[in-house]
Amino acid sequence: MRRLIPSRALLLLSAAPLVASLLTLFNPALGRSALFLDLGLLTVAAVDALLALRLKVSVQRAAPDVMSLSRRNRVSLRLRSETRGALLVSLVDDLFEGAEAHDLPVKVALKGRSTTVAYYHVEPSLRGAHALGDHHLRMPSTFGLWTVQRRIVAKNAVRVYPDLKQLQQFDTLAKQDRELSMVRVSRHKGGESEFARLRDHVPDDGSKHVDWKATARRQKLTVREFQLESNQNLMFLLDAGRVMTGLDSGISRFDHALNAALMLAHVAARGGDRVGALGFDDSLRVFMTPQAGRQASRAIIQATYDLFPRLVEPDFDLAFQSLSSRVKNRTLVILFTHVIDFSAAESLVRRVRAIGRRHLPLIICFRDLEVEALADPKGSSDLYLKGAAAEHLRWQKSLMLELKRGGAMVLETTARELTGKLVSRYLQIKAQRLL
Q1: pTM metric for this prediction
Q2: Pairing of strands 99-100, 146-152
Q3: Distances, alpha carbon 176 to alpha carbons 165, 182, 199, in Å
Q4: Between 20 and 30 A from 372 (CA), which of 205, 221, 384, 419?
């Protein structure tokens, strides 16, 4: 599909015959000159239009089948000109819902009968199955009187998964023996159990783990590292209810929870633990029994990539009953939620007390920075609003205290800090042999 759009140059040139026609009102002898100008401009514009319709550019797009949420995912475009002369092409692609590409339109200078590769980056904010659509090209005609607009039908299916690039970063750091620096925890991996290896001392290491014989032999401060226990169960409970739809840093709380769960699943699977997932709102949406091996995190991705939070109340009774009936071995149960009402809190506390007899619950509570800002003495001047915010924060603190009394561990965090704090807490639980 092609369209010819008059360029600015054509519009400016069109003013010359118009001026000449106006002058004929004062001097009729200029009528013939105005007519010649009209015919000349019309002829040149027609020739230029015919030449423009012969411009041929083909486009081939290479996009990843799987993109990472809230990351820059590179898309390549292979443009080939079938025209002898040079062309300046501006290209825009149809993106899917929730996607942005700040480096569009792509502008490419093509030599005659040549091929050029260009790139742009897609940043998705919605998980799920999507597609990149048609190409829209614009290029100037030979004489610059027209802009050729062409639409090329295209479709590339894309699946947007939780943040996969954080896993790649972790694996890169692991190869450099710096995996824990990514999550800002002590380099001491385990408690005093089975010896794993010797390694270089870092500032976070305690002196009691220094191996003085190895230090003397290597002439370099060396510490012993101990293995963490493996073959233990982790189960992620993902609240997909209405409160988890709230946005933070451009994506929902649910997506922050899913990214953190994916990262921890990857870390735990590398350490020999089994990981599973349960997604719920007012019904059971996803259930994956704990699995071992490096494919466990991939299995969680495939099970949850099209799971989205809905505007319904979460059923904690259903979630914990499903867990109790299907997972019998002692398990670290990690629940991601954001409780803001009394009935849900009462149900959660009751279920945590019941499940704590067999499993080890860890409740992840998101801090609400907007409410905290309202309660700040230097914040809102509305005393009623400030008092309501402060009262809500006091209620949340009392809820966390109730959960701890019921046998649960509680991690209160912002969405941005979630992944690092969660992995750190997991490693502390393993080192202290709480599971």
Answers
A1: 0.67
A2: unpaired
A3: 17, 12, 12
A4: 419
